[in-house]
Amino acid sequence: MLKTNQLIDEIKNYAVKFSSPTELQPLINAASHAKYVLLGEASHGTSEFYTIRTELTKQLIQEHQFSFVAVEGDWPACYEVNRYVKGLAPEYQSAEDVLKKSFNRWPSWMWANHEIVNLIDWLHSYNQTQTEKKVGFYGLDVYSLWESMEAIVDYLKKIKSPDLQKALNAIECFDPYKRKPEMYGISSAFYGEDCMSEILELLNTIKENKSIHPEDPEAALNMNINAIVANNAEHYYHTMVTNDNESWNIRDRHMVEALHHIGSFYGEAAKGTIWEHNTHIGDARATDMANEGMVNVGQLTREKYGQNNVYAIGFGTYQGTVIAAKRWGDPAEVMTVPKGTEGSWEEAMHNAGDFNQYLLFTEENKHLFRNVMGHRAIGVVYNPAHEHYGNYVPSRLSERYDAFIHIDETKALTLL
């Protein structure tokens, strides 16, 4: 373990200063060989994390034939964006229109923001130049239990499927819980009142692909993942009231399962960029999450596809502002992000130079950045006054990521 002054010297030796995302070409080149490039963020409300990920994603698509973008968002809402960028949704007038109408469940600011508009507009224009499979935009998260079931019902109604009643049975089972996951979780965990059999029957029906309309090339993918969401969400909400760590594992395993289906749809040679929080894309084995028996997307994808086929890029900031809420469900507000705490990776990067910089971890240098140090993580709920006690994840940075981008001072997202 390096002493603090030695660590700062090594950051100075290996970090590359940049002032614009256009200067990140060496990082793009290093990541381009991977099947999946995981793009993190240290918060869900920082402008620069979105704008830099957008530029990296554009280059990976344009220069290295990446096939899709998958994000930490709900499948049904992101699928509407997917339809829009592929020119299949004339009901939406613009990128802003589809984002506003699709992302209306809290915390909507994660995707209904001005920063993401740039990417959605670009994808829409880029796809108009493509004759083969167009670049897609998909959601990997597990939360959309009701929305996914409703999407299945709507589609089965549209094609007059004989399997419609099975989907209606599943929805009716969940009706008493009034779209409140905690009500369902308590009922299923403590009173044995669950909807597992209805969900499994629906999942098995969809997997048999009896109800897919041949004129819609993505209908099978859409139906299949909505059914998987419904199944895994039931399991997630059932578990979350009794075992928080295991519910986390269910969620991240679901994300990897959804990613597998998206990748299969695009073919064996498909490549994708994955946008999620650092806590999902940075290998859990390089943090204290491993001590709690927790896994995440970064670990699971490395295990599933091989270390060389996954390239994880973490993000961090020393200070600035962020969009977050004081409590779950509260309105979003702009909050101050304090200076990185003493002994953290954020402080070390800042002390090596108070400017934007990135580190590429290689066989030559990764042993130098294995100190166990706090690495800031801000969620949708945040209290800057208490962040020292719960917002730093002990991390071995060069094992958690393949590269790290440090933005010295950041600003909050701009909401639509």
Task: Summarize the structure in short.
This protein is α/β, with parallel strands linked by helices and 416 residues long. It is built from 17 helices and 11 strands.
Structural account:
The protein is built from 17 helices and eleven strands. With 416 residues, it is α/β, with parallel strands linked by helices. The chain folds into two domains: 4-66 and 271-410, EreA-like (biosynthetic domain) (EreA/ChaN-like  fold), CATH 3.40.1660; 145-266. The strands form two sheets. Strands 1, 2, 3, 4, 5, 6, 7, 8 and 11 form a nine-stranded mixed sheet that branches. Strands 9-10 form a two-stranded antiparallel ribbon. Helix 3 packs parallel to helix 6 (114-127) and helix 9 (181-191) packs across helix 11. The longest helix is centred in the middle third of the chain and has 23 residues, at 244-266. It is globular, with a radius of gyration of 21 Å. The mean pLDDT is 93.
List the helices and strands and how they pair.
Elements: H1 4-14, E1 16-17, H2 25-31, E2 36-39, H3 47-64, E3 68-71, H4 75-85, H5 95-102, H6 114-127, E4 136-139, H7 145-158, H8 164-174, H9 181-191, H10 196-207, H11 219-240, H12 244-266, E5 272-275, H13 278-281, H14 297-305, E6 310-324, E7 333-337, H15 345-352, E8 357-360, E9 372-376, H16 387-390, E10 392-396, H17 397-400, E11 403-410
Parallel strand pairs: 2-5, 2-6, 3-4, 3-5, 6-11
Antiparallel strand pairs: 1-8, 6-7, 8-11, 9-10
Helix pairs in contact: 1-15, 3-6, 4-5, 7-8, 7-11, 8-10, 9-11, 10-11, 11-12
